[in-house]
């Protein structure tokens, strides 16, 4: 959570004690700036509809919201809500993909005196320099943007004796003139950017308990994919810890899409079967191919059009270019690897930011460390792998494994998400 919305929540609590205000300061609303979505031409309506649905899903349980779409901007009102509740709404909107900035704003009548009054009050108890930035989405307003800024700036200077500084001020007061009202605000927090979840279709993430796959899932959600998750546990040869980790990772990622499903497949016996077929150095790559084949079977059932993994080139022995090519050969669906060109430290920074790192770092018994051969093949040959799979009847085994998947619904907001 950014400091600015936190500060806004605290100020709101102090000012109104959690009760809806009727002091003429202007109704508190959430104003969001959209990014790429505004560039999508005739597809724009589709994008907006998807985004509005996602916003409603993220606001679930907060009470009635009123959404209004303007050019490149969405305003959400919660009539009758306390400022604290609006601050909570703003916090949730910070996780909705497709949003670039989230602001808590005061909604003020289109009257320069009323606007000036709210702007002056918004700077009470602030210190340091300030600037006013005004813009008009409605050009019929009788004052130009610079006239508005000068007018309000001199009122603030008079009231609080603060110096104006146009370049890199300590505080900025934003005034945005719209069709029916004016919005006044001082802070904001960056959103996730990207595209609304669901806009690009559906895919299945192969989700270990590790650091990489949750970040890969996040990256693809941000490009508009709605994702399901598939975790292979080492059960019955390991405990259930890796499943708990996968569950809490998915719950954490559910903030960004809602309605997440986690499928869990016990993989221990299949690993044993692979080992008994005498694969030796090929154990890891053969296992990964069987995971992918199982994932493909499940994805087809779920309407997923791609698989997603957390592979990064060269990070471990199974991720050499030759081995990655051998993995691609196992399935027909495309395998998306959004982390392929990233360093581990970059992936960890992102994992920390999206709140998955501490969960990933919990100890568990990963199924991949079961039955690991002493030496791992770094240049697996596709004909060798295919031969092993014929002996194992890997296609049928994958069908069987997909059939054993148990589904969970880890929801960030709790209860039934109701999302598609
Ligand atoms: P991660 O941190 O995501 O576990 P990793 O660096 O440990 O990745 P590998 O263990 O080789 O690398 O796994 C590469 C990818 O294979 C993972 O990112 C994930 O997509 C998939 N994968 C590995 N183990 C599992 C598992 N137990 N269940 C589901 N997918 C897995
Ligand atoms: Mg791993």
UniProtKB/TrEMBL annotation:
Keyword Transferase annotated: yes
Pfam families per UniProt: ThiI, ThiI_fer, THUMP
GO-annotated biological processes: thiamine biosynthetic process; thiamine diphosphate biosynthetic process; thiazole biosynthetic process; tRNA 4-thiouridine biosynthesis
UniProt EC number: 2.8.1.4
Binding-site list for ATP: 206-207, 231-232, 288, 310, 319
GO molecular function, one term: tRNA binding
Domain called THUMP: residue spans: 87-188
Localisation: Cytoplasm
Annotated metabolic or biological route of this protein: Cofactor biosynthesis; thiamine diphosphate biosynthesis
SMART domains: THUMP
Gene Ontology CC annotation, any one: cytosol
SUPFAM superfamilies xref list: Adenine nucleotide alpha hydrolases-like, THUMP domain-like
Catalytic function, reaction form: [ThiS sulfur-carrier protein]-C-terminal Gly-Gly-AMP + S-sulfanyl-L-cysteinyl-[cysteine desulfurase] + AH2 = [ThiS sulfur-carrier protein]-C-terminal-Gly-aminoethanethioate + L-cysteinyl-[cysteine desulfurase] + A + AMP + 2 H(+); [ThiI sulfur-carrier protein]-S-sulfanyl-L-cysteine + a uridine in tRNA + 2 reduced [2Fe-2S]-[ferredoxin] + ATP + H(+) = [ThiI sulfur-carrier protein]-L-cysteine + a 4-thiouridine in tRNA + 2 oxidized [2Fe-2S]-[ferredoxin] + AMP + diphosphate
UniProt cross-references to InterPro entries, sorted A to Z: Rossmann-like_a/b/a_fold, ThiI_AANH, ThiI_fer, ThiI_N, THUMP_dom, THUMP_ThiI, tRNA_STrfase, tRNA_sulfurtransferase_ThiI
Top-level division of the source organism's lineage: Bacteria
Keywords for the protein's UniProt record, in alphabetical order: ATP-binding, Cytoplasm, Nucleotide-binding, RNA-binding, Thiamine biosynthesis, Transferase, tRNA-binding
Broad class of enzyme this protein falls into: transferase
Function statement: Catalyzes the ATP-dependent transfer of a sulfur to tRNA to produce 4-thiouridine in position 8 of tRNAs, which functions as a near-UV photosensor. Also catalyzes the transfer of sulfur to the sulfur carrier protein ThiS, forming ThiS-thiocarboxylate. This is a step in the synthesis of thiazole, in the thiamine biosynthesis pathway. The sulfur is donated as persulfide by IscS.
Family: Belongs to the ThiI family.
Annotated protein name in UniProt: Probable tRNA sulfurtransferase
């Amino acid at each position: 959570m950014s400091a600015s919305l936190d500060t806004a929540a605290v100020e709101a609590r102090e000012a109104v004690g959690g009760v809806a205000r009727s002091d003429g300061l202007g109704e508190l609303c959430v104003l969001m700036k959209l990014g790429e979505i505004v560039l999508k031409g005739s597809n724009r309506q589709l994008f907006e509809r998807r985004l509005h649905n996602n916003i409603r899903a993220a606001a679930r349980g907060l009470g009635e919201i009123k959404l209004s779409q303007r050019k490149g901007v969405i305003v959400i009102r919660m009539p009758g809500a306390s400022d604290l509740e609006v601050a909570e709404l703003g916090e949730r909107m910070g996780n909705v993909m497709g949003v670039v900035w989230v602001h808590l704003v005061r909604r003020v009548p289109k009257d320069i005196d009323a606007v000036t009054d709210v702007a002056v009050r918004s700077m009470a108890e602030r210190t340091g320099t300030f600037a006013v930035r005004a813009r008009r989405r409605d050009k019929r307003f009788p004052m130009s943007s610079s006239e508005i800024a000068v007018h309000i700036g001199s009122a603030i200077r008079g009231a609080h004796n603060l110096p104006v500084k146009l370049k890199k001020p300590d505080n900025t007061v934003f005034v945005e003139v719209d069709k029916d009202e004016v919005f006044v605000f001082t802070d904001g927090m960056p959103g996730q950017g990207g595209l609304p979840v669901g806009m690009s279709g559906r895919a299945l993430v192969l989700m270990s308990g590790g650091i990489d796959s949750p970040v890969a899932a996040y990256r693809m959600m941000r490009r508009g994919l709605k994702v399901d998750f598939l975790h292979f546990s080492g059960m019955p040869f390991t405990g259930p810890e890796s499943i708990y980790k996968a569950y809490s990772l998915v719950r954490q990622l559910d903030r960004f899409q809602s309605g997440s499903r986690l499928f869990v497949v016990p993989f221990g016996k299949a690993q044993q079967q692979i080992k008994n077929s005498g694969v030796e150095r090929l154990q890891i790559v053969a296992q990964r191919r069987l995971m992918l084949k199982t994932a493909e079977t499940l994805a087809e059932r779920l309407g997923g059009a791609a698989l997603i993994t957390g592979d990064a080139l060269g990070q471990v022995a199974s991720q050499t270019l030759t081995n990655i090519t051998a993995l691609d050969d196992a399935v027909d669906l495309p395998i998306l690897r959004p982390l392929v060109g990233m360093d581990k430290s970059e992936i960890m920074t992102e994992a920390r930011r999206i709140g998955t790192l501490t969960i990933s770092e919990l100890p568990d018994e990963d199924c991949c460390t079961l039955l690991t051969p002493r030496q791992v093949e770094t240049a697996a040959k596709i004909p060798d792998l295919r031969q092993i799979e014929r002996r194992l009847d890997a296609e049928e085994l994958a069908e069987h494994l997909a059939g054993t998947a148990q589904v969970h619904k880890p929801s960030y907001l709790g209860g039934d998400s109701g999302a598609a």
